[in-house]
Amino acid sequence: MSIVIIGGGVIGLSAAYHLARKGAKDIIVLEKGEVGSGSSSRAAGIITGHLWSETGVRARKISLQRYRELSEELDGYTFQASGTLNLFDAVSWKEREALLPLYDQLDVPYEVLDATEIHYRWPKLTPDTASGIVGLYDPLGGYSEPQRYIPAIAAKARQLGVEIRENQIVTGFERNGDTFTGVQTADGTIPAERIISASHIWTNHLLGTAGLTLPMRAIVHQRYVTAPLTEAVNIPAVNANPYGAYVRPAEGNCILAGYETPNPTPFDIPSMDFDMASVRTPEVYQQRLKDNLTPLLPRLKDTSWATEHVGLLSFSADEEPILGELAPGLIVAGSFHSGGFAYNPVAGLLLAETALSETPSINVDTFAPTRFANLDADDLANQRNTSTIQRRH
Q1: Cα(115)–Cα(296) distance, integer angstroms
Q2: CA-CA distance, 137 to 265, in Å (whole number)?
Q3: Alpha-carbon distances, residue 376 vs 268, 317, 337, 379, 381 (angstroms)
Q4: Is the pLDDT of residue 314 over 50?
């Protein structure tokens, strides 16, 4: 079976790798730049299993297991099993606390910690004991270093026979009636029995060439890494929602932290050849991030940011991922909110199963791209505006 995957980020690479592991042949990945040059290389790489929907929780269970297996399967990559601490203020904790029975039902481990317990467990973390902050600790969580994971999975996919073509912009599709039968590039047409679009924020430009669209929007996000410290900081990965940020250790005795864009507005993607490297954010965000996080992690006070990575996140109208067959021969994956890196092992597995017409590891009907077919614009806007649960990693 010939399969073309559009997009050489972690979702597309994971799909290619899992297809090849299943014995599929004739797999081509088309990447408009270099592999991982979009959001994947700009990601924090944090993962937690503590999500807000049953499908999401089931999917993350598989991702967490696969990350540990991938540490054995991929050369030069190791999952950092630091655990993930998810922080909530009093209002957001009520929403998340209501999900604890779901975690119990699905056998997802967790610990509920108050500020004092957090500081006792990780002395470098100093949440205000009078703030009412609650920590939900995921002992199975952790993080990946994108600069290790991306080349490792790309190399292994190539080793298994996947052809990865870089600097290849897809300009359209070939169809036979309603069935998608190939992709068009500047170098010619590539026939395919299955097409997987994992093209992130470029998805609707690509689908538009076939008269299709999905309710997806992009917002700007930024993350930074400090200069090396004298010693590593012993903390878990932290989704610090009350602080408008996240933070984790980074290799080389560094600290990686991300700043939540205040009052984000949709970012317009002008064309298929848009380069994410052109996105800029205000320099003041660097100081704001430090100001926000220093009360939680005082070690940041005397550090400096050595690198900045600005990227774009993608959200669907209901803020759940999109994954499944959109039309005969065309499979779409995208809008993994800020958790694309976290989802990629299970997303790649599910995309491989879908392309090969296998029974999926979990039911992902709630992620199906066709779920929006009967919703009008007002319904979609209302869904988007009523979500209050943090969608992070």
Answers
A1: 10
A2: 31
A3: 21, 11, 22, 5, 9
A4: yes
CA pair distance 296, 316, nearest whole angstrom: 31
Which regions of 59-202 does DSSP assign to beta strands (E)? 84-88, 111-114, 134-138, 142-143, 163-165, 170-176, 179-185, 188-191, 194-197
Please, what is the angle between helix 146-159 and helix 10-21, to 10°?
A: 40
Beta bridge partners of 313: 219
Q: Where are the alpha helices (DSSP H) in 201-246?
A: 203-208
- pLDDT tens-place string over residues 87-102: 999 999 999 999 999 9
Q: Determine, yes or no, domain membership for 391.
A: no
Contact 142, 237 (CB under 8 A): yes
Q: Please give the residue range of the domain that contains residue 159.
A: 3-386
Give pTM, 2 decimals: 0.96
Could you tell me if residue 318 is inside a domain?
yes
Residue 261: φ, ψ to 5°: -60, 125
If one counts the domains in the chain, the total is 1
Question: Does residue 81 lie in a domain region?
Answer: yes
